Every structure is written in structure tokens, then in C-alpha cells.
Amino acid sequence: xxxxxxxxxxxxxxxxxxxxxxxxxxxxxxxxxxxxxxxxxxxxxxxxxxxxxxxxxxxxxxxxxxxxxxxxxxxxxxxxxxxxxxxxxxxxxxxxxxxxxxxxxxxxxxxxxxxxxxxxxxxxxxxxxxxxxxxxxxxxxxxxxxxxxxxxxxxxxxxxxxxxxxxxxxxxxxxxxxxxxxxxxxxxxxxxxxxxxxxxxxxxxxxx
Length: 208
Description:
- The protein is of the alpha/beta class.
- The protein has helices at 26-40, 63-67, 76-79, 101-114, 137-145, 170-188, 199-207; strands at residues 2-4, 13-18, 44-49, 87-95, 98-99, 122-128, 151-152, 160-161.
- Helix 1 packs across helix 6 (170-188).
- The protein is globular and about 45 Å long.
């Protein structure tokens, strides 16, 4: 986990999750652009690259509901610090029209084990994929992030980073800067429910 701490530790903090796990990849480049925006706003961040240590699929054992801990390695160290974060940025890769498995398995465990700690948190989901490719990545992100009722900063038209020849393009960098401006403004408002509390849905989530 890489850290960047601003001088004033009372400021806000963001957790950035790179599920692409490709050195020099588009998501890593996007994280670098976002990191510059955060530094300009005196916001600190932690960055996690979902590698082999973190890549443990959810086995649906149900123990996380009682213990708020995962039986698999690679996530409990993160759960211990979830209360510190005011925002979440998560990036993955589309492979054969699907959100990559590493991103899915990591978010499944994070949302199920730690949803009480990051409920309603402003979230910026991103993917890297070829332009005009058919994908259900956005729907999958919405499903995964619904566990903690995340406030989604962007929309389906502003979450794809294609890049050209392996480099993030200028228009994509500008899009990220605009989205981070929206996210910072939302973070300043604090966590607010995006939908009214639904006890039936909460019960169904527990059953699942």
C-alpha cells in the first residue's frame, strides 16, 4: 500500500483501488492524475493494487456478517482503516466484455465485510476497455457498490478510459479532473443516504 499524507492530517482521505494490476496501465495512469488533484486539494490517499495477495474470491461462507472479517487473506488489513476514508476510487479492466475477476472478487469481499464502515461514501468507478466494446461492467459495478449504497460520482458515459497506444489521452485526463472536482464537493457535504433506508432490503442483504 502506497501512502501520501498531506501536512494537515485533519483533511479528508481517499482509498484508491487499482484492480487492473498492470504496471504502467491506463488505470495506474488515471490514479496518478487523480493523485495530483488530491494533492492540490490537500487530501491524502492510500492506493491499493489488487495483486495475488488480495486476489481471493468470496466463498459465500457468511462469516463476514457476524465478524466483519474475511476468512480469506488480503483484505482485513484494509478493513481496519475503512473509517478513515471519505471517498473511494476503484478501477478495473474489461476482459471479453466483463469486468475483470480480480476487481469483482476484491469488491465483493470489501463491500460485504466493510459496508457499515463506508456506507454512502462518494465513489468513482472506472474501467479501461476498447472503445465501442459491449460490456456489462457498469451494471456489475452498480451491483457491487450497492452493498454500501455508494454515492456514484460519474455515470455510464463517463467511466470508460480507453487510452490510445497505451497512454491516457488529454480528454480523458480532463474528464478525470472534472469528476474529481465533483467528488471533492460531495465529500465536503459528508456522507448522505442516496436512497431512503429500506429494512426489507437490509434483511435480504443479510440473507444473501
